Amino acid sequence: MNALLKHRLTWPVLALVLLLLLNQLFRSDFLSVRVQDGHLYGSLIDILRNGAPTILIALGMTLVIASRGIDLSVGAVAAIAGAVSCTYIYNSPDPSSLRTAAGGVAIAVVAGLVLGLWNGFLVSVIGIQPIIATLVLMTAGRGLAQLVTDGQIISVSNDSYQAIGAGFFLGLPISILIAAAAFGVAGLLTRRTALGTLIEAVGINPVASRLAGLSARSIIWTVYVFSGLCAAIAGLMISSNVTAADANNAGLYIEMDAILAVVIGGTSLAGGRYSLVGTLVGALIIQTLTTTVYTLGIPPEVTLVFKALVVIIVCLLQSSKARDLLRQRRRPVAKQSDVKVAV
Amino acid sequence: MNEIVPVVDMSGISIEFPGVKALDAVDLRLFQGEVHALMGENGAGKSTLIKALTGVYPIDSGTITVLGATHRFSSPAEAQAARISTVYQEVNLCPNLSVEENILLGREPRRRGGIHWKEVRRKAREVLDQLQLGHIDPGSVLSTHSIAIQQLIAIARSVQVDAKVLILDEPTSSLDADEVQQLFTVIRTLRDRGVAILFVSHFLEQVYEISDRMTVLRNGRLVGEYRTRELPRMGLISKMIGKEMDALAELERAESRRQPGRQDEAPVLQAQDLGRKGSVRDVTIALHAGEILGLAGLLGSGRTETARLLFGADRADQGHLSIDGTAQTFRSPRTAINRGIAFSSENRKEEGLIGDLSVRDNLVLAMQASKGWLRRVPRSTQDQLAEKFIRTLDIRPANKDALIRNLSGGNQQKVLLARWLITNPRLLILDEPTRGIDIGAKTQIQKLISSLAADGMSIIFISAELEEVLRLSDHIAILKDRQMVGHIPNDGVTMEDVMTIIAGTPA
Ligand SMILES: Nc1ncnc2c1ncn2[C@@H]1O[C@H](COP(=O)(O)OP(=O)(O)OP(=O)(O)O)[C@@H](O)[C@H]1O
Ligand SMILES: [Mg+2]
Description:
- The structure holds 2 protein chains of 2 kinds.
- Chain A is mainly alpha-helical.
- Chain A has a single domain (2-338), classed as ABC transporter involved in vitamin B12 uptake, BtuC (Orthogonal Bundle), CATH 1.10.3470.
- In chain A, 70% of the residues lie in helices and 4% in strands.
- Chain A has helices spanning 2-6, 10-26, 43-66, 74-91, 98-126, 130-149, 159-166, 174-191, 195-204, 206-211, 216-242, 254-264, 276-295, 300-318, 320-327; strands spanning 34-36, 39-41, 154-155, 168-169, 172-173, 244-245.
- Chain A has a two-stranded antiparallel sheet.
- The two termini of chain A are 28 Å apart.
- Residues 328-343 of chain A have low confidence and may be disordered.
- Chain B is built from 18 helices and 22 strands.
- In chain B, strands 6-9-10-3-11-12 form a 6-stranded mixed sheet, with helices on both faces. Chain B has a 6-stranded mixed sheet with strand order 18-19-20-15-21-22, with helices on both faces. In chain B, strands 2-1-4-5 form a 4-stranded antiparallel sheet, covered by helices on one side.
- The relative contact order of chain B is 0.11.
- Classes of the chains: A mainly alpha, B alpha/beta.
- Chain A binds chain B through residues 192-195, 197-198, 200-201, 204-205, 207-215, 219, 272-273, 329-333, 335, 337, and chain B through 55-58, 72, 74-76, 311, 313, 332-334, 337-338, 343, 345, 350-357, 361, 365-366, 368-371, 373-377, 405, 419.
- The site of adenosine-5'-triphosphate has 22 residues of chain B, from strand 2, helix 1 and helix 15.
């Protein structure tokens, strides 16, 4: 029992379940999932579908944070990805064909990889602090996206393209399937190989890692490129869902949601040990919160405050210090390495 | 004479960590004006007992009385307020602050709401002078100093407060003979002022020189409290290890001369006037397979810097380096490791441990790094290696999944040593490999080093204990003021010989 209480995932999962139950209380059909035209429908499915971009970006963010970094540019990268793909499709001679859609996706993915390379270059080669390095692209990126779209909102009508964010496959939304696949691949890639452990080693003690012969540079580079890739795919989902590229608003503040998801999932902002499953739960909490706000009819002005409150509660529950205060027991004072999240 | 009331009286102290009973009903008494040694093997519970007293760890049971009042410190700050001052085993300072800031951190003299910097400087100077460390610039950044100097600065910090109790957990582990004497002078002065001092060390000579009384722990249990002059060395050792000493004494004597290295072949490592601006210069070495080269020199003479150059941790900008006769320029440790070189740093916390990873992950880290992330060392191999080295080096607890930061200092050191042994290097550079290791394990590691050399590994050995260097090495390179000043074969070289060379060379 005690072990269960201490498990890093216990509190986030509990919070998620409580949130879902709270919704059920206000809307009795909340937890039911229907089949309609061979597709699954229901609030739970909506949460998953709308949450897919956040889940993906949080996935990339987890590895970046584990390596002691942070990537603030993900929202901008998502916007750029949507902008280049929609612009490409819009300007192509055959804007509704599958081939054009595939071309748009390919361009967006390449853009994401290149932007990730750029971030990785600034952090690992030039040695700029991650928060500053990615701030560059966070601010400049939206401008770039606007240049691509010429300051317009580019609408496209391409069924194949629309399927990414709004389509169904085997009864499930395609965006969920993509996010799930990305999680699976990332999980295998980091835990079946040594990548996960090496990322953690670099995040925990970069100096010792270097002396042990790790190539911190290539590891750090890898995580930023991966984060760029995730952001680009998320950007595709977002623009595909609304069949338009909006350079100003696509993925706005999504970096904050992603960072929160990572933190709620139990990965410390100080770097080191990470949990992909934790991040998944964290992202679902964030998305459920957004939905809850609508269900409860909370006015949009208070939405952010409400979100902040829940996040603070989850983080408090997770911090071993706060938990001990609750239990009125004295525990070892936090050493630097176990100072947990305090957002 | 001081039998009346102990300054500190801990009784029945128990602390349990998940899966480990670190302390089981242990008592400790410290008296005014006495130096008390806390003795025990690696992992016996010495540091844990100290942390119980200073409020780092909460105790599960037992009582702590300081100056007659029962206390339950829940933070080091509270213990400090009760005038207990501590230097922990791992230097706990802020590397990017200056020396003076570190010494006075949290107690800076103030004036008109701001920090009175002139006064800070004056107080820092005063305490440094008192410790005969006047040569250290109080304004210099802490991290620019060697680990030994940092250790001394940590001591300066604790001396600066007007303490009733001073706790020193292995303060001498990286100091050489002279600094130890400096430190002892300070300890004696404080003792005569009536401070109760708790001292931990694995060097028996030091313990016998400085302590009046000792408490022995074994496996988290109290063995007993003794007056130092009433407990002979052999008795102490058998109390610490729980069996008679013969086996160990045997080891010590069985230190037979090995075959000399393979001089006829090309040297494994050859350095010619290697150097780096601001680091060391004139490093000239020729090391053959199976040879052990000892680096001798005083604190700050450039031994660690030499090792770092040879390993590529710092880049050389003067001279030449070749491995097996091929010229090399090491840009990073990685390139050196690929050429079969390994380097175990003296600074285990900053440069060795990956604290939040398990013993197993730490053990295979260097091997994994050289294979690259794609080819993961199979889990079964990892387990085998971990089990093998936990057994051969007697790492405790024998749990490969334990987080390495939860191991005792000496056991952490063994894991780091194993990390490099696993890679089976051609040249192994060991900077203070026996630092913080108990006497039993130390002889064992020295034997290991000899046998590795006998099997053809070349070894560069650095230790603040000159004796240990002389016993193990075939050659001795002598450094002074960051310059290599001598290189002699070890045919019966004595400590005096080395000291004469150091003293005789003009800087
Ligand atoms: N935070 C912790 N969590 C779990 N186990 C711990 C923790 N701290 C210490 N231990 C365990 O408690 C035991 C005693 O450790 P301690 O550090 O007190 O040994 P020590 O006597 O100081 O040894 P050394 O001479 O190597 O410094 C060891 O088995 C160690 O692994
Ligand atoms: Mg210790």
